[in-house]
Amino acid sequence: MTDPKKPDQNIDDDWAAAMSEQEQSEQEQAEQQGTGDDDPWAAAMAEQAEAEAQAETPSEPDAEPNAQSASDSVFRPLAQSAGGGASRDLEMIMDIPVKLAVELGRTRITIKQLLELAQGSVIELDGLAGEPMDILINGYLIAQGEVVVVDDKYGIRITEIITPSERVQKLNR
């Protein structure tokens, strides 16, 4: 193969010359590293290896090999005791707040209908009058109940606790 600008010169010879120059420069670099010239990467790697070796060997001869961590003395172990393990586990979650919501019903509307809503508009829901309301905990249906008024405030009286199989059926509606 030849260069169109220099038809007399062979490109393969140029490649061979370039490759030999590269090999020579690599050999020179290897020799310089072997003679002790400063290589910052090699020095950094050697320093890191030395620091790791010092960290593995204890600097104090009287250090205890079976020393306990501070967490053992600060935190109680979570091992269950024979008698009160279940009640203790339940106590751990008693103060976790949850969101309770009561749902009157649902509906689907288009964006056009949404934009047409104004003060005084009525939205029809799929729930029937007198039908029990859904009680949701963190968005999950757990019970149904009826609305009550106590001292001018709304409340809900639980009339039915939903079983897990009923929960699955209610989610599909």
Automatic annotation (TrEMBL):
Stretches assigned to the Flagellar motor switch protein FliN-like C-terminal domain: 92-162
Pfam families, A to Z: FliMN_C
Region of interest: Disordered: 1-84
Gene Ontology terms: cellular component: bacterial-type flagellum basal body; plasma membrane
Top-rank taxon: Bacteria
Keyword presence, Kinase: no
Main location: membrane
Entry-linked NCBIfam families: fliN (TIGR02480)
Protein name: Flagellar motor switch protein FliN
Species the sequence originates in: Halomonas urumqiensis
